[in-house]
Amino acid sequence: MIHYTIRRLISAIPTLLVVAVMIFVLIRMIPGNPAMVMLGNDATASEIAAMEKRLGIDQPLHIQFARWAGNILRGDLGDSIYYRKPVTQVIFSQLEPTLLLVLYATAVFLLVGVPLGVTAAVHRNGPLDRACMTLSMIGISMPGFWLGLVLVILFSVKLGALPSVGYVMIREGGLLESLKYLTLPAIAMGLQRSASIARVARSSMLEVLGNDYIRTARAKGLVERRVVGLHALKNAANQIVTQAGISIAHIMGGSVVIESVFNIPGIGRLAFDSIARRDYPAIQGHIIFVAAVYVFVNLAVDLLYKFFDPRVEYK
Protein backbone atom coordinates (compact mmCIF):
# COMPACT_ATOMS: atom_id res chain seq x y z
CA MET A 1 0.00 0.00 0.00
CA ILE A 2 2.88 2.37 0.74
CA HIS A 3 4.35 1.92 -2.74
CA TYR A 4 0.90 2.42 -4.28
CA THR A 5 0.43 5.65 -2.31
CA ILE A 6 3.82 6.97 -3.40
CA ARG A 7 3.08 6.18 -7.06
CA ARG A 8 -0.28 7.94 -6.82
CA LEU A 9 1.32 11.03 -5.32
CA ILE A 10 3.97 11.11 -8.04
CA SER A 11 1.35 10.64 -10.75
CA ALA A 12 -0.54 13.66 -9.37
CA ILE A 13 2.33 16.00 -10.27
CA PRO A 14 1.43 16.23 -14.01
CA THR A 15 -2.20 16.88 -13.04
CA LEU A 16 -1.22 19.74 -10.76
CA LEU A 17 1.11 21.08 -13.45
CA VAL A 18 -1.73 21.21 -16.00
CA VAL A 19 -3.94 22.90 -13.39
CA ALA A 20 -1.19 25.44 -12.71
CA VAL A 21 -0.82 26.33 -16.39
CA MET A 22 -4.58 26.71 -16.86
CA ILE A 23 -4.88 28.81 -13.71
CA PHE A 24 -2.07 31.11 -14.75
CA VAL A 25 -3.42 31.68 -18.27
CA LEU A 26 -7.10 32.05 -17.33
CA ILE A 27 -6.45 34.47 -14.47
CA ARG A 28 -4.41 36.72 -16.78
CA MET A 29 -7.49 36.86 -19.03
CA ILE A 30 -9.58 38.48 -16.28
CA PRO A 31 -10.16 42.15 -17.18
CA GLY A 32 -8.47 44.64 -14.88
CA ASN A 33 -5.04 45.59 -13.64
CA PRO A 34 -3.95 44.74 -10.08
CA ALA A 35 -1.78 47.84 -9.92
CA MET A 36 -4.71 50.07 -10.91
CA VAL A 37 -6.99 48.33 -8.40
CA MET A 38 -4.48 49.02 -5.63
CA LEU A 39 -3.73 52.62 -6.60
CA GLY A 40 -7.22 53.69 -7.66
CA ASN A 41 -8.52 55.41 -10.77
CA ASP A 42 -6.67 58.64 -10.03
CA ALA A 43 -3.24 57.04 -10.35
CA THR A 44 -0.96 58.31 -13.09
CA ALA A 45 0.58 56.13 -15.78
CA SER A 46 4.01 56.37 -14.17
CA GLU A 47 2.64 55.33 -10.77
CA ILE A 48 0.87 52.36 -12.33
CA ALA A 49 4.02 51.35 -14.22
CA ALA A 50 6.08 51.58 -11.01
CA MET A 51 3.54 49.43 -9.15
CA GLU A 52 3.48 46.84 -11.97
CA LYS A 53 7.29 46.63 -11.78
CA ARG A 54 7.17 46.19 -8.00
CA LEU A 55 4.56 43.43 -8.34
CA GLY A 56 6.48 41.76 -11.16
CA ILE A 57 3.55 41.78 -13.58
CA ASP A 58 5.35 43.97 -16.11
CA GLN A 59 7.46 41.04 -17.29
CA PRO A 60 6.47 38.63 -20.12
CA LEU A 61 3.99 35.92 -19.13
CA HIS A 62 6.43 33.05 -19.63
CA ILE A 63 8.90 34.65 -17.23
CA GLN A 64 6.15 35.27 -14.68
CA PHE A 65 5.01 31.65 -14.96
CA ALA A 66 8.53 30.23 -14.69
CA ARG A 67 9.18 32.25 -11.54
CA TRP A 68 5.81 31.28 -10.02
CA ALA A 69 6.16 27.57 -10.88
CA GLY A 70 9.69 27.51 -9.46
CA ASN A 71 8.44 29.01 -6.21
CA ILE A 72 5.63 26.40 -6.00
CA LEU A 73 8.17 23.58 -6.23
CA ARG A 74 9.82 25.08 -3.14
CA GLY A 75 6.47 25.30 -1.34
CA ASP A 76 6.17 29.04 -1.89
CA LEU A 77 2.85 30.23 -3.39
CA GLY A 78 4.08 33.81 -3.58
CA ASP A 79 3.02 36.95 -1.72
CA SER A 80 -0.53 38.26 -1.75
CA ILE A 81 -0.82 41.61 -3.50
CA TYR A 82 -3.61 42.79 -1.19
CA TYR A 83 -2.51 41.33 2.17
CA ARG A 84 1.20 41.83 1.45
CA LYS A 85 2.23 38.60 3.12
CA PRO A 86 2.79 35.01 1.92
CA VAL A 87 -0.24 33.39 0.29
CA THR A 88 0.37 30.21 2.29
CA GLN A 89 0.07 32.21 5.50
CA VAL A 90 -3.11 33.90 4.27
CA ILE A 91 -4.71 30.57 3.29
CA PHE A 92 -3.90 28.84 6.58
CA SER A 93 -5.11 31.82 8.59
CA GLN A 94 -8.54 31.43 6.96
CA LEU A 95 -8.58 27.64 6.60
CA GLU A 96 -10.30 26.81 9.91
CA PRO A 97 -13.89 27.82 9.01
CA THR A 98 -13.71 26.16 5.59
CA LEU A 99 -12.26 22.93 6.97
CA LEU A 100 -14.85 22.80 9.76
CA LEU A 101 -17.63 23.62 7.27
CA VAL A 102 -16.55 20.79 4.94
CA LEU A 103 -16.46 18.28 7.81
CA TYR A 104 -19.85 19.47 9.12
CA ALA A 105 -21.47 19.33 5.67
CA THR A 106 -19.94 15.87 5.10
CA ALA A 107 -21.55 14.62 8.31
CA VAL A 108 -24.87 16.09 7.17
CA PHE A 109 -24.92 14.47 3.73
CA LEU A 110 -23.80 11.09 5.09
CA LEU A 111 -26.34 11.07 7.94
CA VAL A 112 -29.13 12.10 5.57
CA GLY A 113 -28.19 10.53 2.24
CA VAL A 114 -27.13 7.04 3.29
CA PRO A 115 -30.26 6.26 5.38
CA LEU A 116 -32.46 7.64 2.59
CA GLY A 117 -30.79 5.44 -0.02
CA VAL A 118 -30.82 2.32 2.16
CA THR A 119 -34.49 2.84 3.08
CA ALA A 120 -35.41 3.29 -0.58
CA ALA A 121 -33.55 0.10 -1.55
CA VAL A 122 -35.05 -2.02 1.22
CA HIS A 123 -38.57 -0.84 0.29
CA ARG A 124 -38.01 -1.02 -3.46
CA ASN A 125 -40.90 0.27 -5.61
CA GLY A 126 -42.93 0.99 -2.48
CA PRO A 127 -44.24 4.30 -1.08
CA LEU A 128 -41.08 4.81 1.01
CA ASP A 129 -38.89 4.26 -2.06
CA ARG A 130 -40.82 6.85 -4.06
CA ALA A 131 -40.83 9.30 -1.15
CA CYS A 132 -37.07 8.99 -0.60
CA MET A 133 -36.26 9.38 -4.28
CA THR A 134 -38.61 12.37 -4.54
CA LEU A 135 -36.75 14.02 -1.67
CA SER A 136 -33.42 13.30 -3.34
CA MET A 137 -34.64 14.76 -6.63
CA ILE A 138 -35.76 17.91 -4.82
CA GLY A 139 -32.35 18.11 -3.14
CA ILE A 140 -30.49 17.83 -6.44
CA SER A 141 -32.69 20.53 -7.99
CA MET A 142 -32.15 23.13 -5.24
CA PRO A 143 -29.15 25.47 -5.61
CA GLY A 144 -27.11 25.62 -2.42
CA PHE A 145 -27.19 29.41 -2.15
CA TRP A 146 -31.00 29.48 -2.54
CA LEU A 147 -31.43 26.82 0.13
CA GLY A 148 -29.07 28.79 2.35
CA LEU A 149 -31.19 31.94 2.02
CA VAL A 150 -34.36 29.96 2.81
CA LEU A 151 -32.72 28.53 5.93
CA VAL A 152 -31.64 32.02 7.02
CA ILE A 153 -35.19 33.35 6.65
CA LEU A 154 -36.67 30.39 8.54
CA PHE A 155 -34.19 29.75 11.36
CA SER A 156 -32.57 33.18 11.78
CA VAL A 157 -35.17 35.77 10.84
CA LYS A 158 -38.38 33.95 11.82
CA LEU A 159 -37.26 31.73 14.71
CA GLY A 160 -34.07 33.50 15.81
CA ALA A 161 -32.56 30.12 16.67
CA LEU A 162 -29.28 30.33 14.76
CA PRO A 163 -26.98 33.16 13.59
CA SER A 164 -27.43 34.13 9.96
CA VAL A 165 -23.93 35.31 9.04
CA GLY A 166 -20.38 35.41 10.34
CA TYR A 167 -18.12 33.02 12.18
CA VAL A 168 -16.42 32.81 15.58
CA MET A 169 -13.00 31.18 15.69
CA ILE A 170 -12.64 28.12 17.93
CA ARG A 171 -9.98 29.83 20.06
CA GLU A 172 -12.39 32.70 20.77
CA GLY A 173 -15.74 31.04 21.43
CA GLY A 174 -15.08 27.29 21.51
CA LEU A 175 -16.04 24.50 19.14
CA LEU A 176 -19.76 24.54 19.92
CA GLU A 177 -20.04 28.26 19.23
CA SER A 178 -18.19 27.85 15.92
CA LEU A 179 -20.47 24.97 14.90
CA LYS A 180 -23.48 27.12 15.77
CA TYR A 181 -22.44 29.66 13.15
CA LEU A 182 -21.75 26.93 10.59
CA THR A 183 -24.97 24.96 11.08
CA LEU A 184 -27.06 26.70 8.41
CA PRO A 185 -24.35 26.75 5.69
CA ALA A 186 -23.46 23.12 6.49
CA ILE A 187 -27.10 22.07 6.17
CA ALA A 188 -27.43 24.00 2.90
CA MET A 189 -24.37 22.30 1.40
CA GLY A 190 -24.99 18.90 2.98
CA LEU A 191 -28.62 18.53 1.96
CA GLN A 192 -27.80 19.25 -1.65
CA ARG A 193 -25.03 16.63 -1.74
CA SER A 194 -27.10 14.11 0.26
CA ALA A 195 -29.37 13.72 -2.76
CA SER A 196 -26.60 12.22 -4.91
CA ILE A 197 -25.43 10.04 -2.00
CA ALA A 198 -29.00 8.71 -1.58
CA ARG A 199 -29.29 7.77 -5.25
CA VAL A 200 -25.91 6.02 -5.29
CA ALA A 201 -26.67 4.23 -2.01
CA ARG A 202 -29.98 2.99 -3.39
CA SER A 203 -28.53 1.64 -6.62
CA SER A 204 -25.56 -0.05 -4.94
CA MET A 205 -27.78 -1.55 -2.22
CA LEU A 206 -30.21 -2.94 -4.81
CA GLU A 207 -27.30 -4.61 -6.57
CA VAL A 208 -26.04 -6.19 -3.32
CA LEU A 209 -29.46 -7.20 -1.97
CA GLY A 210 -29.98 -9.45 -4.99
CA ASN A 211 -26.86 -11.55 -4.28
CA ASP A 212 -26.98 -15.15 -3.06
CA TYR A 213 -25.19 -14.52 0.24
CA ILE A 214 -27.92 -12.04 1.26
CA ARG A 215 -30.60 -14.68 0.63
CA THR A 216 -28.48 -17.16 2.59
CA ALA A 217 -28.19 -14.78 5.54
CA ARG A 218 -31.95 -14.34 5.58
CA ALA A 219 -32.49 -18.10 5.31
CA LYS A 220 -30.26 -18.60 8.37
CA GLY A 221 -32.70 -16.52 10.38
CA LEU A 222 -30.74 -13.28 10.79
CA VAL A 223 -32.92 -10.28 11.55
CA GLU A 224 -33.38 -7.88 8.63
CA ARG A 225 -31.53 -5.09 10.41
CA ARG A 226 -28.37 -7.19 10.65
CA VAL A 227 -28.70 -8.43 7.08
CA VAL A 228 -28.98 -4.87 5.75
CA GLY A 229 -26.50 -3.18 8.08
CA LEU A 230 -23.85 -5.85 8.54
CA HIS A 231 -23.83 -7.67 5.20
CA ALA A 232 -25.44 -5.54 2.51
CA LEU A 233 -24.35 -2.01 3.46
CA LYS A 234 -20.70 -2.95 4.01
CA ASN A 235 -20.49 -4.58 0.59
CA ALA A 236 -22.22 -1.61 -1.05
CA ALA A 237 -20.00 0.90 0.74
CA ASN A 238 -17.34 1.28 -1.96
CA GLN A 239 -19.65 3.08 -4.37
CA ILE A 240 -20.99 5.23 -1.53
CA VAL A 241 -17.43 6.13 -0.47
CA THR A 242 -16.60 7.08 -4.07
CA GLN A 243 -19.58 9.41 -4.27
CA ALA A 244 -18.76 10.80 -0.82
CA GLY A 245 -15.24 11.66 -1.99
CA ILE A 246 -16.63 13.46 -5.02
CA SER A 247 -19.08 15.32 -2.77
CA ILE A 248 -16.33 16.43 -0.38
CA ALA A 249 -14.35 17.82 -3.31
CA HIS A 250 -17.47 19.61 -4.60
CA ILE A 251 -18.11 21.10 -1.17
CA MET A 252 -14.54 22.36 -0.91
CA GLY A 253 -14.75 23.95 -4.35
CA GLY A 254 -18.30 25.23 -3.85
CA SER A 255 -17.53 26.89 -0.53
CA VAL A 256 -16.90 30.13 -2.46
CA VAL A 257 -20.64 30.71 -2.94
CA ILE A 258 -21.82 29.56 0.49
CA GLU A 259 -19.13 31.49 2.37
CA SER A 260 -20.04 34.62 0.43
CA VAL A 261 -23.75 34.19 1.20
CA PHE A 262 -23.12 33.62 4.93
CA ASN A 263 -20.14 36.02 5.17
CA ILE A 264 -17.83 33.31 6.51
CA PRO A 265 -14.13 34.34 6.47
CA GLY A 266 -12.86 31.10 4.94
CA ILE A 267 -10.71 30.35 1.92
CA GLY A 268 -13.78 30.35 -0.32
CA ARG A 269 -14.50 33.95 0.64
CA LEU A 270 -10.77 34.64 0.23
CA ALA A 271 -10.97 33.47 -3.39
CA PHE A 272 -14.05 35.61 -4.06
CA ASP A 273 -12.44 38.74 -2.62
CA SER A 274 -9.13 38.04 -4.38
CA ILE A 275 -10.86 37.90 -7.77
CA ALA A 276 -12.47 41.29 -7.11
CA ARG A 277 -9.07 42.71 -6.07
CA ARG A 278 -7.18 41.08 -8.98
CA ASP A 279 -4.89 39.48 -6.41
CA TYR A 280 -3.27 37.02 -8.79
CA PRO A 281 -1.05 35.15 -6.29
CA ALA A 282 -3.93 34.63 -3.84
CA ILE A 283 -6.27 33.32 -6.57
CA GLN A 284 -3.60 31.00 -7.94
CA GLY A 285 -2.70 29.77 -4.47
CA HIS A 286 -6.32 29.05 -3.60
CA ILE A 287 -6.95 27.01 -6.74
CA ILE A 288 -3.70 25.06 -6.37
CA PHE A 289 -4.65 24.31 -2.76
CA VAL A 290 -8.13 23.09 -3.75
CA ALA A 291 -6.65 20.99 -6.58
CA ALA A 292 -4.28 19.37 -4.08
CA VAL A 293 -7.25 18.63 -1.81
CA TYR A 294 -8.98 16.90 -4.75
CA VAL A 295 -5.90 14.73 -5.27
CA PHE A 296 -5.63 13.72 -1.61
CA VAL A 297 -9.36 13.06 -1.27
CA ASN A 298 -9.28 10.75 -4.30
CA LEU A 299 -6.26 8.96 -2.84
CA ALA A 300 -8.01 8.58 0.53
CA VAL A 301 -11.08 7.13 -1.22
CA ASP A 302 -8.95 4.57 -3.05
CA LEU A 303 -7.25 3.53 0.20
CA LEU A 304 -10.61 3.18 1.97
CA TYR A 305 -11.72 0.52 -0.52
CA LYS A 306 -9.46 -1.98 1.23
CA PHE A 307 -11.22 -1.33 4.54
CA PHE A 308 -14.66 -2.22 3.16
CA ASP A 309 -13.54 -4.93 0.75
CA PRO A 310 -10.48 -7.01 1.79
CA ARG A 311 -10.35 -8.49 -1.70
CA VAL A 312 -9.05 -5.18 -3.10
CA GLU A 313 -5.37 -5.39 -3.98
CA TYR A 314 -3.03 -2.44 -4.50
CA LYS A 315 -0.33 -3.06 -7.11
Output the CATH topology of the largest domain: MetI-like fold
Kindly state the number of beta strands.
0
Taking the alpha carbons of the first and last residues, their distance comes to: 8 Å
SSE class: mainly alpha
CATH architecture of the largest domain: Orthogonal Bundle
**H-E string:** HHHHHHHHHHHHHH
Helix content: over 70%
Our count of helices gives 14
Mean pLDDT across all amino acids: 80
* Percent range for β-strand residues: under 5%
Radius of gyration: 24 Å
Short description:
This protein has 315 residues and is mostly helical. It has 14 helices and no strands.
What does this structure look like?
The chain folds into two domains: 1-90 and 266-315, no CATH class; 95-262, MetI-like fold (Orthogonal Bundle), CATH 1.10.3720. It is built from 14 helices and no strands. The chain has helices spanning 2-28, 34-39, 45-55, 61-73, 87-93, 95-122, 127-141, 144-158, 170-173, 175-209, 212-219, 224-261, 267-277, 280-308. Helix 8 packs across helix 10 (175-209). The protein starts with a helix and ends in a 7-residue tail after the last helix.
Features:
315 residues, mainly alpha, MetI-like fold, 2 domains, 14 helices, 78% helix, globular
Give the helix/strand layout.
Elements: H1 2-28, H2 34-39, H3 45-55, H4 61-73, H5 87-93, H6 95-122, H7 127-141, H8 144-158, H9 170-173, H10 175-209, H11 212-219, H12 224-261, H13 267-277, H14 280-308
Helix pairs in contact: 1-14, 5-14, 6-7, 6-10, 6-12, 7-10, 8-10, 10-12, 12-13, 12-14, 13-14
